[in-house]
Every structure is written in C-alpha cells, then in structure tokens.
C-alpha cells in the first residue's frame, strides 16, 4: 500500500487470473477496516513488448530464455519459408489459434494478472 497524492491508497498485486476474477466478484473487499475497490488491470504495457527471438510477448529479446524462432514464419510456424511467402492458413504455434504467433491477446498468461486494490 502507498499513499497517492489524492490521499487514496492503492496496492497492486499479481495473482492467477481465476483468483483475480473471484476477487472482483465482490465489489468491495475489506482490508482491515477499510473497504476497498478491486479492479483487474490488463497487462497491456507488458503485452505490447514483443520478443524478436522467440516471437512471444511480455518480454524483450535481451531477456529471452525461449526458443530461437527468428527463422520461423510468423503466420504458420513453419521453418521452410517466411511469412511473406506463406500460403498456409494462419495458425499460432503457441496456442493453435487463428492468428499470427503471439498476436496481441494470444494465450494471455493465466498466472499473471495484475489486480489493483483502491482504498478510500
Ligand atoms: Zn523471447
Ligand atoms: Zn507460413
Ligand atoms: Zn496464439
């Protein structure tokens, strides 16, 4: 918890998505004697980061510990051609969905949900 200039208090926690959803079911959460408002923060800033090494989102190539997919077609995951020569259907090799690999919103990690708790 820390004080914000408008004298409200805010805490951010990171929990699994299912827990976060359970938490926001109750519009008011009691922390001590303070009733708090709970919101789920979409991890947009993080999701905007795109790694050129493994093609996934949420980190940058310098911090990548994933597979080297630099030669991979981002449309179908093939190593035989690049996306500009791709004649296959779009298929995300990460989640199997109908989008380029790790498109924005692809397989949002369930264990990485940021929750904001506002106290007044
Ligand atoms: Zn990476
Ligand atoms: Zn392809
Ligand atoms: Zn996907």
TrEMBL record:
Q: Can the keyword Metal-binding be found in this entry's annotation?
A: yes
**Molecular function terms, GO-annotated:** nucleic acid binding; zinc ion binding
Gene3D superfamilies in the record, alphabetically?
Zinc finger, CCHC-type
Keyword terms, alphabetized = Metal-binding, Zinc, Zinc-finger
Which InterPro entries does the UniProt record give?
Answer: Znf_CCHC, Znf_CCHC_sf
Zinc as UniProt keyword: yes
Q: What is this protein called?
A: CCHC-type domain-containing protein
- In its UniProt entry, the species of origin is given as Anopheles dirus
């Amino acid at each position: 918890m820390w004080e914000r200039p408008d004298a409200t208090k805010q805490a951010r926690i990171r929990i699994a998505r299912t827990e976060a959803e359970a938490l926001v079911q109750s519009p008011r959460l009691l922390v001590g004697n303070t009733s708090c408002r709970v919101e789920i923060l979409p991890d947009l800033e993080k999701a905007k980061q795109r790694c050129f090494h493994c093609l996934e989102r949420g980190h940058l190539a310098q911090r990548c510990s994933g597979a080297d997919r630099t030669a991979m077609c981002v449309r179908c995951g093939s190593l035989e051609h690049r996306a500009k020569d791709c004649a296959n259907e779009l298929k995300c090799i990460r989640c199997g969905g109908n989008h380029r690999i790790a498109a924005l919103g692809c397989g949002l990690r369930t264990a990485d949900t940021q929750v904001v708790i506002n106290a007044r």
